[in-house]
Amino acid sequence: QVQLAESGGGLVQAGGSLRLSCAASGRTFSRYNMGWFRQAPGKQRELVAAINSGGSTNYADSVKGRFTISRDNAKNALYLQMNSLKPEDTAVYYCAAGSGIYSGRYDYRGQGTQVTVSS
Fold it and tell me: Are 101 and 59 within 8 A, CB to CB?
């Protein structure tokens, strides 16, 4: 079992940056594939970025070159550095864990943190 809690969301102007953090419980955090999903009102859930237990990463085309996912297994933490934010990045962002992350599925998910980008 893994419990996840996101933080770091907020309101930012277009072109600005935010860093999301996810604190995970459980001694097996390092074994999980992890990811950040987002969902905007009226839109489907989208996998934004993923990182496997070995540190390999994958990004949605819409955020490549702007977002960076990272993990610190010693701290049981997952991060998402978001730069050059755009209004279309506005969504609730969720931290997630599970073997199916790269296929857009997860076994565990946090409550989410709101990111709002103003134009």
Answer: no
Would you list the DSSP string of the chain? ---EEEE--EEEETT--EEEEEEE-STTGGGS-EEEEEE-TTS--EEEEEE-TT--EEE-TTTTTTEEEEEEGGGTEEEEEE-S--GGG-EEEEEEE-TTGGGT--SEE---EEEEEE-
Specify the residue for token string 């419990």: 3
Fill in the amino acid letter for 73: N
Rounded Cα distance between 75 and 60, Å, is 26
pLDDT digits (tens, 9 = 90+) for 20-69: 999 999 778 889 999 999 999 999 999 999 999 999 999 999 999 999 99
Cα separation, 6 vs 42, whole angstroms: 22
